Every structure is written in C-alpha cells, then in structure tokens.
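Sample A.
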Amino acid sequence: MIKRRDFLKIAALSTVTMATSPLHAETATETPSVKSYRAIGKTGLKMSDISFGGGKLSAASMVLRAVDSGITYFDTAPDYGQSEKEIGEAMGRIQREKIIIASKFCNAAPNPGHLPFGSKKKDYIAAVEGSLSRMKTDYLDFCLVHAIGSMSKDLEAEKKRLLDDEMLEAAADLKKAGKIRFLGTSSHGPDNMEALLMTAVKSGHFDMIQPAFNFMNFPKLPEVMAEAYKLGMGVIAMKTLAGAKDMKIEGTKNEFPLAAFRWVLKNPEVSGLIVTMKTVADMELYLKASGEKFTSADQRTLERYARLYGSEYCRTGCGQCQGSCAAGVEIASIMRYRMYFRDYGMEKRAMQSYALLKNKATACFACGDPACVGSCPYGLPVQDMLCDAHESMSFMA
C-alpha cells in the first residue's frame, strides 16, 4: 500500500511532468514558426527565410502575429493600400530594431504609384517621409526603386529610371539623415528584367535586388543572382508561387506552396523570400517550409503543378509577346493584373491598376489575327485570357 507521503510525492512529480512535457500529438500541435535566418548580402542584417509580403495587409494584428512567429522582414509600399498604415498601427508594440522594413519610392496612390523618370530629388524624399509617417518609424532598412521593367518597354528608358541622378542624390541625403539604411531595386518585368537587374548589380549603387523567381521562370536570372551574390548583395525572391493556383489533385492543396518555397530557398544566393500572407492560416502554412530541405517529393509536386498550369500560367517577366500586338495592348501587364485578380485575391488592386493602363484589352475582342498567341513561347491562349481579363477587371457603369 502507498503511504500518503509517497502518494503526494508521486502526484507532485506527475504534475511537473505534465507541465514540462509536450502534449500528445492528438491534443496539441506546434504552431509553425521561422526556423532559419539568412544574411542579406553584406548589409549585416539577417532575415527570416520566409518573410512577409504586405501587398494584402489589412490588419495590424497580422504584423504582430508574424513577429511572434519569428518573421523579421516586412515588404510594403505606399501604393499597397492600407499596408503601411497597418504596420504603423503595430509599431507601438514592436521593438523596431528587431524587424526589417522595406518600402519603395512610390506615391500613395492606386497601384502602380512608382515614381517615374523625371521625378525630382524632393519627390523621392517626400515619398520616403510619407512612408515613415504612415509607419510611425524613423527609418527604412531598405528603400527600393520598384518594378523596373514595368513602366517602359525601352531598355534605355528604364535604365534612366533605375540610375536617375535625382534618385541617387535623394538616397544619399536620406542615408546621411538616417532615414534609409540601404538601397535596393525590384523587377518582375514584363520587359528586360534580367538586363535591368544586371545593370543594377554592376552599378555599385544597390545593396539588394528583388527579382521574380520561381521554378517555372527565367533562364538568365541565375547568372544575375550569382553575380549579385559574388559582390555581397542581397537577393530576395518574390512571385515564388508561379501563379499561386490551388492544385486540383486530391490531398495536394498544401503541398505545392511548401515545395515551391523550398525550391527557391535551395538556391544559396537567395537571402529569403517574401510572400503575401492574407490570413493567419496562410502564415502558418507557409512557415512550415522554413528551414526545410527540398526533396524528391517536392520535385514531383512541382512537376504535377507544371503539367496542370504550364499552359495557362503567364510567366512573370517573360514579355516575349509584348511587341506582337499592332494595337499596342499592354499584354504582360494585363496578364499580371489578371493573376492578381483571379489567383492572389487582390481584386480591387487589380481593377485599379488595370484602369490606369493606356492600352487595355478592348481591341482583343474584335481581333481576327491574334499575333500574340503565336508569339507566346508557352502556347498560352493569350487572346482569350486578355478578353477574360477585360471582362473581369473593367469597372462597370
């Protein structure tokens, strides 16, 4: 028979064991969190390998949840809706030095609000000061010349925007004032992405590049990334989900994004990736890829995705169809906005951006000789997709 004194000892020990031991898997699961951090070139900063894209940010609570999950890098812009303001709402409950904030030289206007070539030094400074005010912070860790290759098909014209003396002088003054720490640039095309990013890398002005990069894209981009890595620049990947479509195979819905992220992160040049996180469920799913190795099962998942969507995914940054349309329809931009509308859940932003285009897809409905279809190296039904884009994204009276 157990004496009362021995019983109490056993009971106390059992209580300690229950408090310190993990619960059975059937009653509790570990909340996913960041497991790996990588250097951003030679900046001295390290970022979470899976990081927060703020394009769809609608609540400060998401920022706080991300920080609690170990996410350190937040990508935003003045033209990302309420994104900067929501980060500002969260700022009072965050240790600023624990996070990295990247924003853009943009106006707070419907996307895209990129400052064009010809903007003055004061415009660049005003854009940054607006971001600082909205986010209630004294400095940006990175400020980017955003979306190079999206405002002009002409390579030399976009090089002028990339290396604008007014921008460079503004950046120098902002650094001296402690309002930005590092300069970066991003590109998802549709034109001259690789050439423009290589220009940025070799210019010596930039500390980081942010390319669109995924398993279905860009045969020349690895060369650009390798050069950036060699020179000590950060490489932060975006558009990593190759269209972000749900896989239509039973039991595989959650496998694809994790496989896609692990494919990107297996490249040693990559400092980390940013991905739009609309919900807590998104965040918890995506963080399962943190610190994980790319496997043969991941490769099979990506191959299934490519078979399903390879003939309907417009490769961000390709742009080979751009010059084929006699009516000057802005094909690649329209296809990207269609992706935002249909697959990214960014309907309002896509419609606003489409409305700002000069050459919309209205001409596509009556086109009897769609040269765009024949010019697509991936065989996409371009005309049908453009007509669908116009019908989906046009504001109706």
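Sample B.
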Amino acid sequence: MSSIEIIIQTTQAIAANPSDAAAYKTRALTLCQMQQYAEAQKDLDTLIDTLHTDDAEVYQLRGSLRMEQGDKIGALSDMRKALDLNPELLQKLNGEFKNQ
C-alpha cells in the first residue's frame, strides 16, 4: 500500500472514529516517512494531549520531531515520558541524541 493510500485510509478511519489512536499513530508515522513533520506532529499532539496515550513510541517520535525543530525542553520532556513508559528505549535514545 502506498503512503498516499495509507494517509487516505487512516484519515477516513479518524473521520469515522476521532478516538482511533491506531489510525493517528499510523498516519503520523507515514507522514514522518513522507517528511511532512508539521502534520505528523499534529497527530502526535492529538494522541498525547487529547487521547492521552501511554505509547512510548509516540512520545519518542514527538520528542525527535521537537528536537529537530530546536525545542530541546519539549524534546527532553517527551523523551523522559517515553523512558518512564519503556526504560528499554534508553539504548536507542542515547545514540539518537549523541550528536545534538
């Protein structure tokens, strides 16, 4: 399935059920792959701020996007939450922020 098809499918799923966390996450990941970071962050914000997800990967991804945008405080907050939810992420995050 192409990225555009995934975006269409997940957008339809969200329209049908605005609480569909899986659809938001899939769309955010696809948007990141398409380098549409602002749109991806909107979905991640919805997952975190509105749907109150406890998915460490969502926090880690938003933290990475925030770091890329220069929001180091926001990135740190998200990464801390990701680590609280999944301490095994430390190994991955260590390398990701080494050169920042």
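B remarks: The chain has a mean pLDDT of 92. The CA atoms of residues 60 and 79 lie 5 Å apart.
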